[in-house]
# Entry
Amino acid sequence: MTSPTGFQMNKPVLAIEGLTVSFDGFKAVDDLNLYIDRNEVRVVIGPNGAGKTTVLDLICGKTRATGGSIQFNDRELTKMNEYDIVRAGVGRKFQTPSIYDNLSVFENLEMSFPAGRSVFGALFFKRTQAVLDRVNQVAADIFLADLLQQQAGLLSHGQKQWLEIGMLLMQDPELLMLDEPVAGMSVSERAQTADLLNRISQGRSVLVIEHDMEFVKSIAHKVTVLHQGKVLAEGSMESVQNNPKVIEVYLGH
Amino acid sequence: MEWLSEFGAIAAMQGFNGLSVFCVLLLMALGLAIIFGQMGVINMAHGEFLTIGAYTTYLLSSLVQTWCPWMQPYYFFFAIALSFVVAGAVGWVVEWVMISRLYHRPLDTLLATWGLSLVMQQAFRSIFGAREVSANPPEWLMGAVNLTDAIEIPRNGLFVMGLTVLMTGGIFLMLYRTRWGLHVRATVQNRIMSRAVGINTRKVDRMTFALGCGVAGVAGAAFTTIGSTGPTAGSLYIVDTFLVVVFGGAASLFGTIASAFAIAQTQSLSEFFMSGSMAKVLTLSIVILILLMRPQGLFSSKVRK
Amino acid sequence: MNALNKMLGGRQGVVGLLILATLILVVFPLTLDAFRLNMVGKYLTYAFVAVGLVLCWGYGGILSLGQGVFFGLGGYCMAMFLKLEASDPESTKIQSTPGIPDFMDWNQITELPWLWAPFHSFTFTVMAVIVLPVLLALIIGVALFRRRVGDVYFSIVTQAIALILTVLIIGQQGLTGGINGITDLKTLLGWDIRSDSAKLLLYFINAGLLFGCILFGKFILHSKLGRLLMAMRDKEERVRFSGYDVAAFKVFVYCVAACFSAIGGAMFALQVGFMSPSFVGIVPSIEMVIFAAVGGRMSLLGAVYGSLLVNYGKTYFSESFPELWLYLMGGLFITVVMYFPNGLAGLWESHGRQWLSGLKRKPAPLVASPAPVITPTPAPAEKKAASPLEIQP
# Structure
């Protein structure tokens, strides 16, 4: 199962081919191929240092690839600006909750509303009914409807994670990338998050990095195992869990 | 052929002149490269530590002249050591009282140390007067060595050059060959982890800062052999020195040396063709233009974050 | 109307603005003699720079140590126009080349340099006062922010630019008047700017422009752009990965600060009657930062109070105890930065307001404040939170 999944009826929304990045000679991602289909929830797992976060960095433009290509809806992302990649429809949540502590929940969400993104657009941005509606709708989705006026820095850790997911939903991205969305969450919060992900994956593709296997089971359509910057295995959760190479990597050392 | 050899002689002396400028710049920049490059602290009062060294040398020189003139030929070596100690000690106190409270606020450190430099300059003025003073260099530092009939190399220049080589080598060895250097580099890379493995990072910070200041003090001692000392002697160099460090790529000692050399030589060679002030404008403009195009400086490495 | 009220920061903001306006437009002109009023006018030209610094340093996190460059460019443009007007062939007929500025004549220049020629036109001059500094800020900003240089690099580079410009001005005596600068400015379009009545009028024009800048600043901070600036200081990466071109916002706010400084510089040349490199270089540039820091780096109105107070102190001490002044100035830098990072506005927020409401003894609505921290957030619940004053590493 080391080869990519082959041809699909529909073109994949994201096609990564031959992707490589090296830092002073060390290859963190090495000739990687990865395809994500429309409406798919894909989870990437792998031991520490496998290059999971680096792959997300490469997709969203935070790190520049040394070689290879990333096609998103036939647009080459490796040469685009970070903000153009976002505007093209890729949203990314960081590993540690990355929200604006000093703004309210409302303002955090509003900040991601895809209007007024240019300098003068922002200067003359008006809080229209459409903005209010969208914020209220997303806030309800992420269980924060009652806390809109709360200062974001005062939220609990789990609520911050949700808020950041909510900020991404404001952008209505076609591809949503989440780096460890349930890290530091309680059991009930995890269940709520799984529910949230299953709801919001309607009509968009989701790429998740996660360690928590129970959580992975509850959301993943398909799982990719990364090891030393390469795809080690790919397939259903069950097939991956029974793959001897995967077991070797996780337990062998 | 006559004019050619004369031209060569002038070029050689101008080049040597550039080397002297290079040495003072480098001695200043070395201290700063340690403090800024390794610790990320902006010390705008760095020039005043040079001035401390210069005044220390001046004081010792006057003392020797009054009380034990027979020391005259040798006192300069003590002056260098004393300048190092005095400037380092002041640096130690400054780190303790001020800098240590401002880590994580680099821009505020910049402003606070600027305030410190004002206070120190006024203190020099109150103690030593506004007029420039000069130390008496020992006799063996006066005059020049005649390489050929046309080429004269001043001895003080040669001495400063030797001192620079010695200091550079010493700092290099300390940073890369001693346990203390290892601690400094470890602290720079990952403060929390270093603390976890038992490095006293506060002590490392204080010693590093003190060392950087001490090196500036030595630069001050060297400075007295070339020019006279006033309360603002050091502050004249501070912007140039920061540019040297930034231009070289902040964390790279080799970069600092290369950029000090490039800047000093550009400055003194262009003085061939234009006035001193225009040469300075040209040199600084070139540096700024290159920095605008390559802000990470000449030497830097790519790191996975 | 409601939107305007919100923009000004609600009732508190309006009262704060009114108090400052009363002080500058009524109290000073009524109580001070012409000489002192002119001096206050001079201090207020520095306040333009400080207000700009609140925007770009306090909110944008960009510490420019070269604002004197823009102040100087604005000032020199205005001074060049005024100097040309003062150098008509009639009043310079004793020179070997009549019709050119006196210092050019002293430097054996026999023809007006091409750089000066357009400054015969007042329209061109007014445009140059704004356009040149903004253009320079645009170039510096685009070059540095696009490549994401750190805060500290930016400060050092801007400082070096201030040094370059000073050395250049001093070195090119024939073109710029050298270290003495451009002096003996007399008339503006035939109007004698040295008379008391002209100085009074200029004072009010200056104050009007300053309030214009403050209002524009409030407009920026109240807009989404203001919230974005705060968001950028909190989590720059998050803003970038929410689809914003972070560099463009930084460039914008830096250009606005440059523009304010340039207006201040031009008004300086008009009110003080000369312009010299001593208002351009490293030392004045960093002093202007302390004006903003003393007033409170997050407060537009505070910046004005800071400029007035520090400059008043400077004038008083350097007249009476010149020895002490540098100690005080240095001490001020250290104390404000280490112990009062929010400056006067912060002190007012934490102590003054309580004291005042205690004095009034009513459960009063919010009281007037001379230097309120501007909170761009509308919801009252976040007011306290809206002044995050730590600079991020």
